[in-house]
Structure formats: C-alpha cells, structure tokens
Amino acid sequence: MRLALAQINTVVGDLDGNAERIRQRLAEAKGQHADLVVFPELAVTGYPPEDLLLRPSFVEAAQAKAEELAREARGIVALIGVPWFDRDLYNACAVCAAGEIKTIYRKRFLPNYGVFDEDRYFATGSDLVLLEHGGTLVGPTICEDMWQPGPPATELALAGAQLLVNLSASPFHVLRDRERQEMFATRARDNSCFVAFCNAVGGQDELIFDGNSLLLDEEGRVLARGPGFEEALLIADIEPADAIGRRLRDVRRRALARDRGAIPEVPVVHVGSPRGPREPLEAIIAPRLDELEQMRLALELGLGDYVNKNGFGEVVVGVSGGIDSALTATLAVEALGPQRVHCISMPSRYSSPETRADARRLAENLGADFRELPIDEIYDAYERTLQESFAGRERDLTEENLQARIRGVLLMALSNKFGWLVVATGNKSELSVGYATLYGDMAGGFALLKDVFKTDVFRLAEHLNTRGGRELIPQTIIDRAPSAELRENQLDEDSLPPYSALDKVLAAYVEEDRSAEELSADGFDPDVVERAVAMIDRAEYKRRQAPPGVRVRQRAFGRDRRTPITNRWRG
Hints:
This protein is an alpha/beta fold.
C-alpha cells in the first residue's frame, strides 16, 4: 500500500481556499500512484474554527464542500477532516472513494483542556469503522483518539486493523514532536499496527501547527517523517502483511480479546482495490530540529501567517537598541522580508548614544526601513499639560510610563496611516511580572515574543547570528545589560530579580502551577520567589489586555492559563 500524508496550511473559514489546497494535494498523490491520501483534522474548515461551528450555515457549507471534494476521489481513497452534522455535530473524517463519501468516522475523544474546547462544539462519536482496501484493513482515528492508551486503537487492532490512521491538528510547543513520536511508537508496538499520523501546519492566531507527520511500522520504527513548519506531501510504501506476522508471534492481543469477552464487531467498508506494480520509492525522513531552531521557525511561521492571513502588507517595530526589539525585528525580516518591515527608533533624553546607534545599525544589518522619531518635545508637552494636576507630587513611574505611551501612540499613528501592523516586542518574563506599560510597549496587533522568556531571547539572538553567519543583531545589543531607558542609569535588575533566577521561578509557577511554598522548599531563592509570585498575581489585568502572540511553550498566557483577575488566593 502506498500512503500519502498531506500536511497542509489551511485558513480558518476559507472553505474555498482550503478545498483548493486539498484538491492540489489529492491530484499530486494520484500522480504519485498513492492508494490512500490523508489530510489533517478539520482540513475543510481549518482548525480550530471555534464559534463558527455554532452557525448552521457554516456547517452546511463545510459539508457541501466535503461532498464536492469527494467527487474528485477517484482511483484513490481520501480521508478528509470536516465537521459533520447528523442529528448533532461531530468532529469527523469523511472517507472519500469512487467519487463519493463512503462513510463517516466520528471522533470519540474530545479534548477539553489547555487550548482545546471541543466539548463546547461537538458530540462524542461512538461507532468505529474499518476500511478494506485490497485486503488491507485501515482504522481511521482523529487526534485525541490516539492519545488514549486503550480504545479506539485497541478495538480497531483487535478487529483486524493493520494500519491505524490519525487525522490531526496537534498544536506545537517546544519538543512536542518528540512526545508525539514516542506516543505513536508505543501505540504501534502495543497494537502491532502500522501508524500514520497526518498533522496540520501553519499559524492560527496564537496556535502553531508544526506538521512533522509520521509513518511508523508495527515495531514503532520511523518509516517516514515530514518536515517541521512547512507544507509537504509525505509519500511512503508499506507492506501491511508485516503487521500480521508480528501478531502471530505476539500472544498479548489474544489475551486482551479474551479479557474483553470477544473481538469487537466493527463494520468493514470496501473502499478500493490494489494497484498494479509500481516503481518502489524511498520515503523521506526529515531531520529533527533542535529546541532553538524549533522556536525560531515557530515564531517566524506564526508572525508570517498572522500577517498574511489577516491581510496586512507590512509591519512596524519600535526598535530601542535593546535585545527584545532587536530579536523581534530580525524575526520579522526573516518571516516577511526586509521590504515589509519598518524599524522606528523613538529616543528620549534617557536614550544613550550607544542604543541609538545600535537601533540604526540593526536596521542596516537587516536591510529594513529605519526612521528616528525623537519624543522629547512631545514628552515636554505632556508634562506641561499635567503640571498643575501633578503639583506637589514627586516624579515616579508615571513619568516613565508617559514615554512608553508616547511611543505607543506614534507606532499606532504609523499603523493607521499606512496600514502597518504594530508588532509589540515584550517577552514572557516581562509580561509575567507586569514589567510592561499598558497602552505603551504593550500596544500592538501581535506580540511576537509573548511566550518567550528573557533568557531564551538572548539564546535566540545568538542562534540567529550563528545561523546567519554574521551579526544580524549587533553583539553590543546582546552584551548590554537590559534597560528600559526611562530614567537615568536604569537597569531592569533595579526592579526585577536577575532574569537567570527569575525565569526559573516563572517556569515553575506559571507553567507547572507549583506553589510559592513548594518552590522555596525546593531550593529556589525565597526572596526571588516572594517577589516574583506577588508581581505575577498582580499583573493578570495587564495580561488580559495584551495582544495575541505565538504559543511556543506548553503553558502560555491566554488560552492555556486562565486565572481570574479578581482573585484573593495567594500561594
């Protein structure tokens, strides 16, 4: 059997555009003489369609599009993800063959944790189906179905499936591809089945889908692996009879069948016959990417898709001469090209000659447009306007935040005038503890580094320079102690614990939900823990007003971590 796994980049709600992508890959799979082509979960609508699924007209249009696509499935079997209404709404797989939808498989396990809300939209499927193609039995599943260690995979295998197919839209976080491969390898070994996993690719608001589709043999060995963060059609040949040989040698399945009382009865749908002889092909096993390269590609894909899918032509980044804005601008240039990125320096009386020069040099290194808009005159006008109201009060954070807000106003003015998307530059460490100014440096349409800790910002900057073979980001920016430059001789560490210590606390408290007491007992500096936890809990109201940004870690603010703003629990 020749399989084709089509990891495609869909756009939520673009039924015509998604269908055209499916058609192209369907035709390509036919041209490669594939027997079976698999598309991602909800490929017709894009994933996740969220409350579009509450609109009957949208669901009807998606079903009609699936039926239209089925007419093109001749001489090949296509498994296409689509929402399906049949007395209730299901997350489904349309099995298309001989120009029609032969049967529908309905997803059994609906994830309702982390970034998922499928219980809000879908009913739970209960029926399984086996597809018979030239004597080979194929068991379709959808995403979460295979993350469960038992049914439906075990039931399909007991009923005779030699190949388990998984249509998926599995969101990315760093090293998620390793977790998936380990899990699917376990399913393959435990069920003595080949396993084919077809994942979506692309950015959808804050989520990234990284592809990395897989084909594993019955021993859990990788036969083919798609690339990460790009579209691909992964094609490979398998010999399904190999799974039968392993089952004859492995008596555990018989014991499982006895324990269950009987082999489950699963209807079998004939979908095709074997082709004649074909030239053998060598499957692609794309190399694994390391942690930093995964982060880089995820950030670039997330920004590029957000900009392009939402119809923006160009972006604007406020560059201060600091590390966060330098990394943001560099990633933007890599994602979009230098001609679509505008770097704006907005120095004040507190901006050093070195940072002003570095901001300009950064833009020159990147080949991006550079403009300098000094803010001192505007700042003086604000002070004069507020002088009477502020009479008798000492200067404090108010005056510092005024500078950040002036910069936000200027960036938004450029955005309004030219249609440029403002890309905010704050990182996860700052957002965690509220070291950011509402309507100032938090202003923007997309916060690229929203889920990137400060220590990772430095690592990524070095990685981009190493990968580029030159100083894209001036080394002086990387080496300089972080500073907001909102007052004389200011350093971030005047207000925050050192980032090397802070980020470890943030990872444990924000991403692992560990308590302050547990952290202190485990050897974290109690002073750092106390300060960090207090700042994190106070800053929730700010985070609710932050722009969307790329999710690269397992627990991001927003869809993942949902903490009430009004909240008196401490610890």
